[in-house]
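PROTEIN DATA CARD
Card holder: 2-oxoacid:acceptor oxidoreductase family protein
Chain length: 587
Origin: Eiseniibacteriota bacterium
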Amino acid sequence: METRTESMPASVATATPLRSLVIAIAGSGGDGVALIGDLLLKMAAHQGLYGMLVQSYGPQIRGGESAVVLRIGDREICYEGEDTDVLVCFRAADLKRFRGSLHLHDDSLLILEEKDTGALPEWLGTTNQPVYRHPFATWDGDVEVAGEPKNMMALALLCRALGWPEELARQAMAERFSHKPALVDRNMPTFRKAYDAPNVPQLLQLKGHGVPLVVETGNEAVARGAMSAGLEFFAGYPITPSSEVMETLIDELPAAGGRIIQAEDEISALGMVVGASFGGVPSMTATSGPGLSLMTEMMGLSSMAEIPTVIVDCQRAGPATGMPSRTEQSDLYHAIYGGHGDFPRAVLGVFDVVHARDVMFRAFELAENYQLPVLVLSDAYVAQRRQIRDGVTDRRDKPRRWRWTPEDGPARFAITGDQPVNAFRVPGTPGGTYLAAGIEHTEDGNPSADPGVHQRMSEKRFKKLEAIAADTRTWVRTMGDPAAAKGIIAWGSSYGMLREWIESHPEYRVFMPEILHPFPIEAFTEWRKGLLETTTVELSYQGQFHRYLSSLTDMNGVRSFARSGGLPMSMRELGEMLGVPATRKER
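Structure generated from the sequence above:
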């Protein structure tokens, strides 16, 4: 099995400073805030600019406040930035639920409703620049009534400020509403009117490399990465923030010859996946924390019967219903330890949208090669962000399961030395009949309550983790100067923030595992040599990652910076905790 160590590319560490803009747009339900961000991101991608879009919204089905934060720049972006360079707000009162998400700086541009004189919250900060006001709303006396679409006005003002031509906006809208071309023509007069408004401030003029790029969400990347790895069957139940994995596969998997089904619940979803995989078909499901809880018994079946399964968990803030639209990294214990009895599983983490495709290939590689459940831990921050990436085609050979032939011997679960995996017998293969069940069994699959058999079979199943550990020992990503005296250990979606932190803080180095269980302990031990100060960083109130590492190696003297989720970790927050100023980027 191919392995590799990925370090931060030299081009990233030594490139000229990133030139970028952070644009935030806040409004109420129905204002079309998300559409503005989506169209701006599409326009950036068309020009060969990079970018990332995150959305903030509440748990309600409809209504409520909504905001998007868009960052565009001249090279790859996987972190939405710190301070807001441009804030468009249709009502000052709508800002109240976005505390912690938005921060002004001295040169921030504010674009506000002409008649809205409401005070901005103190936590937002202040700017030295004059406020630009535009008549977004339509009024009947002092009452706001339905009028021209505010989002088209805001889109036009931002395009004008960025120096982007009107035709670029029309192109993006035509793509977005290809099924409703009349909608574009109906909205263009409103767009032009705002585009021609007087005295529109000018923003940093960013230039892309001219080659169109691809916009993709984390969930879309997970779905397409799974298809590239050979996915043929998906069963799932919709749950925030994972639902778009299933939605993407509904649109794309059948055309590739695969099948998909929406199950009645998460228990049956994983049951169907186990059943399809038992039939020889590469299969997966996707869920979030509450759904993963329901899948736990079926995970044990997958491991006991040695049937490959892939389970994607898009983590959200918990427990119970928790905060469904908010991010957290608190399913780590569940993924590694959850379940009754002792059974092996592998656990991988997702860094960002670009990384998601590679992670899914690795997940299917492990599941098919080692015949056990493989969990992929994404989270809301990665799953629902939109990120511009280079267009890539995966040309790797798809993982293939070791299929049984009569030459492979009679016993499905034979214990043969250090070999923890046996040839897989697909039902219907002549001569390959055996008993497959969740009960403990002999080498032939026959039920057994013999403690000695249980011990030997447990040893056989757990040898898979030893083999996986040997094959994945270099599945890590390190960033920064290997000789730096201070270290940060993190996993998952903290990657983008830490990648930028390292650029302005060369006294630090970072260790991020791509595989969480079995943990690449040898690579970690080698990386931490010479460190004078080390900190773990995570979105978990208990510090689950720190405690997990403490169960594997000596973590005395290593600080734990852990908090509950809701908002992603920021460079400002990390700097305050470490007592180091977060250097502000060139705009």
